[in-house]
Amino acid sequence: MHFGTITLLVFIMLTNPIRLSAQENRQDMSKQEIKAKLTPLQYKVTQEKGTEHPFTGEYWDFFEKGTYTCICCGAKLFDSDTKYHSGCGWPSFSDSPYKDNIEEVPDYSHGMVRVEVICKQCNAHLGHVFNDGPKPTGIRYCINSASLKFIPKSK
Ligand code: FE
After folding, report:
1. pLDDT tens digits for 42-57?
2. How far is the CA of 149 from the centre of ligand 1 (A)?
3. Which residues carry out catalysis?
């Protein structure tokens, strides 16, 4: 092997762990920042894929006009126009005008096959989406209140 190549390899080996630990530190920092601004329940739901107890959240029985944003990053997620009373105990939406901010990923946890809904901007866990919603979409976004922040429509 050429001496220059060996030097380069040694250099990469030596510098990589340093770079990795710097990245880990950055992630820890942002996790700490997120933790500082959320309640323990908001943190558990959005960062650890938790679920609030049904019929306990701030918005399951709340029908003011406005926009629902991500509690972590503020991205717009849902609108009161498509919020409906599903009876499941969590805020339910039949559609979203902000689909660009929502990502759906397969979830095989807890022995079920579901589709998880996350914030595309910050990866916060929001809830799940089911196909038992009202017409015309037939969709039910079942979202934790703890992952949302409601912004009232200005009059
Ligand atoms: Fe977010």
Report:
1. 999 999 999 999 999 9
2. 11
3. 142
- Tell whether the torsion through CA atoms of 53, 110, 142 and 116 is positive or negative: positive
Count CB atoms within 10 A of the CB of residue 142: 22
Of 127, 66, 139, which Cα lies nearest the Cα of 91?
127
To which residue do tokens 């996790």 refer? 31
User: What's the CATH class of domain 48-152?
Assistant: mainly beta
**Which tokens hold the place of 57?**
């959240």
Q: Where are the domains of the chain?
A: 3-37, 48-152
- Rounded to whole angstroms, how far apart are CA atoms 51 and 58? 13
Ligand 1 centroid to Cα of residue 119, in Å, is 5
Cα 77 to averaged position of ligand 1 atoms, centre (Å): 9
pTM: 0.81
Q: Name the DSSP class of 122.
A: T
Give 88-128 pLDDT, tens digit per residue. 999 999 999 999 999 999 999 999 999 999 999 999 999 99
